[in-house]
Amino acid sequence: MARWEHRAYYPWDAHKMSELPRNRSSEPHLRNPAPQSLDVGAMRTSAGEVHFCVWAPRHRKVALRVHAPATGLVEMTATGDGYFEAILETTAREIRYAYLLGEKLERPDPASHWQPEGVHAPSAVVDHTFEWRSDTWPGIPLRDYVIYELHVGAFTPEGTFDAAIARIPYLRDLGVTAVELMPVAACPGARNWGYDGVFPYAVQHHYGGPHGLKRFVDACHLAGIAVVLDVVYNHLGPEGNYLRDFGPYFTARHRTPWGEAINFDDADSGPVRRFFLQNALHWVTQYRIDALRLDATDTIYDLSSRHFLAELSTAVRDRGEALNRRIYTIAESAANDARWIRPTAQGGFGLDAQWNDDFHHSLRRTLTGEAQGYYADYPHFSQLGKGLREGFIYSGEYSAYRRRSHGSHSADFLPSQFVVCCQNHDQVGNRMRGDRLGQTVSLPALKLAAAWVLLSPYIPLLFMGEEYNETAPFPYFVHHGDPHLIEAVRAGRRHEFAAFSWDGDPPDPQDEATFLSAKINPDQRHDGIHAELFAWYQELILMRKQHPNFRAGTRDGMHVECDESSRSVWVRRETENSVCVSIFHFEANLIEGRFPFESGVWRTLLTSGDPASDAEAIRSNNAFALEPFAVRVLELLPARLPLTDLPIATGETRQAPRNPQV
């Protein structure tokens, strides 16, 4: 791991002073700091100054090392509780700096907003002045989110925010209302999933840096699309992680799968909590992020009287009210714990929503039959129905995979408090070869999976490319500089897949070819089955947005029936003026089944098959036929409406035997 060369300690490097602009106002110099603000990092002020603040309780003396526009070293003032501050009066546009801890240890700023030369190099001061064209953007209600998750580096050939801006019209055409960015915090090398970030406040340079992110957010808001940012508050990456050189940011009291946990409840944890709380407010304020997706919150350990997540949700909600914007916190969690979204006044963490992995796992197990690893917990077809009806499938039952009881009751919470999917970066990328669902199941099954997610009452999440059955995989990739770390990552991936009993070896995470293989190509959507699937996604999203039975985002008026014998799920949803029945058939056989709801005249609103064939089959046979992996949405017609030219079905149909040979 790289270390910086130590320079002699004196106020300024005299031989570099001639490189400073001769306009005195641009010459940086130290003056007495203002009263302690505790806002860590380097921030330009309206008075033409730069305020530096760092928490370094492990050192009695800290100095500010300026690398540009000239080199120099000035002592910082200790302001108490381990904080050090300095103010530079300067109009210089480019300022590179680091902190000298004690006499020899030089490190970048833990709260750096930009690392333009990498995680081992000096930090850069960022001028956050930006002309927002979407200045009046208020955000959108969480219940209206249709989330599209993307990796900035793999979303376009260029792998930048500006290149992603060019694809915003594509996202609008698809119909999504929110984009979720995988983590963009600075991490080692030029490519990474983002979960090895080591500077939580800095925007990865290769993506376009701070102003690139602002341009992307602004363009999304102008298009009516919210932006969700994935942030990691459970660990930092292994390379370039210098926080422990400053203070007790980590604790041996708890362990995560990635090593020591962040210190949210041990000695001297107060400033650590503030560091990450301030980080959340940094994203929603400086970059106008609409929601934070909090990574692996079940590994954010805090045994104090007020959990860090409760403090975070309150701070973000208060900031949203102050800014007159809708801003949300969404937890990723495998805990199935409703405490995450229970109001803080009732002892919960008060987050706005959380991921529901059960929904994905039961769907994948049903479609593919996979039973390795955690899929072993979802053998029953009825679990699909429970997931749709309640949210969590495991709400206290015994989990064979975990060998203990798991989960809590979730049916009393709004569906808009749960995010569901049929694919996401974890469920694709944490397969040995990063293979997508389309490499395992047929086009009808892909349509079925999409409808199961998008016609559910929950917040749907799409993973980039699933909407047209992208053929590129999404394997895990990194770009570390330490050979020992590279080999440890390779070994770790092999060990991780042992529980799934997959044959072979995963792609080399360090190989650039592994990263390049993940680049998606949306032009595929114009051809063949890709075009057919893309049109299906558009149709589903449009129905979700426009039809009152699917727009409501509640379970009111929803009734779910699972038919084990036919492997089908019937969902009746009723609003004041409409009754709809959605039929999902999860088997590769043609069946005919008895209509389980009230008799009447029904028209087909949506079908995954050929609409003309469906209508003709219903009229001629007077029986309800379901094709393999079929999806059909019917609406009950009021008796007064004419039936001419409507694809209809009578509500009374006959029960036919299943024919496994069809």
Structural summary, described in words:
- The chain has 662 residues and is an alpha+beta fold.
- The strands form eight sheets. An eight-stranded parallel barrel has the order 11-12-15-18-19-20-23-24, surrounded by five helices. Strands 25-26-27-31-29-32 form a six-stranded antiparallel β-sheet, with helices on both faces.
- Mean pLDDT is 88; it is low at 1-37, 616-622 and 641-662.
- It starts with 29 loop residues before the first strand and ends in a 12-residue tail after the last strand.
- A hairpin with a 3-residue loop joins strand 8 (96-101) and strand 9.
- The overall average pLDDT, rounded, is 88
Helix content: 10-25%
Low-confidence stretches: 1-37, 616-622, 641-662
DSSP strand tally: 32
- Side by side, the strands of the main sheet go 11-12-15-18-19-20-23-24
Could you tell me the strand content as a percent range? 15-25%
Shape: elongated
Distance between the termini: 62 Å
Structural class: alpha+beta
> What about the largest sheet?
8 strands, parallel, barrel
Cα gyration radius (Å): 27 Å
| Helical stretch tally | 15
